[in-house]
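Design request, tokens follow.
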């Protein structure tokens, strides 16, 4: 199973990614988590990525693509993977196409979580209070929403045209949303 999970910042991607990946026995690969781990460890990649993340901007495609390519090449991703937070730009879509083609498989589904915009800001401010993420200040939250609208929302149409888009209502409890994702993916044939 090769899946991507999309949705605006605050849509609950990270939580759902873990549930869905566990269910299918595949790794959840979160580019945001990998960047944050590198920032914490003070690696060269972390130092490079941090200034973009702190500003709510996307890390350049070249850096992000290379990181995902390396991660997908690891043995645990051979049976499949769920990408959380990648691709986020049209250039990343093309890169991912190449990476998946290279495995001899196809993308099974692009799941997009749809959430009310006002609810999103509230969720992110709540997360700022509980998790203390450096990029959860109000200004940065708004910038991240804008970058998502400008650079990532167009991807929804790309995957819709390819007939792999699965739209899921992301409102309500975590469990309710997980159940909706499972129900929607039940109908998806695996490559
Ligand atoms: P996330 O945890 O998915 O919200 O990602 C946190 C931050 O990491 C984003 O605001 C970006 O700065 C960076 N990031 C994560 N994924 C990507 C990506 N696919 N392309 C560029 N930057 C990314």
């Amino acid at each position: 199973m090769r899946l991507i999970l999309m949705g605006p910042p605050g849509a609950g991607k990270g939580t759902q990614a873990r549930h869905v990946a566990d269910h299918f026995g595949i790794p959840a690969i979160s580019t945001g988590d990998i960047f944050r781990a590198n920032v914490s460890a003070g690696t060269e990649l972390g130092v490079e990525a941090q200034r973009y993340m702190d500003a709510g901007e996307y890390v350049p495609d070249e850096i992000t693509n290379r990181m995902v390519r390396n991660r997908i090449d690891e043995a645990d991703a051979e049976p499949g993977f769920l990408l959380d937070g990648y691709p986020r730009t049209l250039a990343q879509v093309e890169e991912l196409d190449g990476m998946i083609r290279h495995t001899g498989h196809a993308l099974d589904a692009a799941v997009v979580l749809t959430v009310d915009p006002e609810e999103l800001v509230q969720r992110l401010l709540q997360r700022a209070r509980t998790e203390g993420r450096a990029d959860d200040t109000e200004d940065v939250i708004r910038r991240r929403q804008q970058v998502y609208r400008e650079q990532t929302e167009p991807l929804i149409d790309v995957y819709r045209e390819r007939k792999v888009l699965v739209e899921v209502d992301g409102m309500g409890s975590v469990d309710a949303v997980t159940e909706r994702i499972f129900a929607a993916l039940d109908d998806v044939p695996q490559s």
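Comment from the thread starter after seeing the answer: thanks! Strands lie at 2-6, 28-30, 81-84, 109-114, 165-169.
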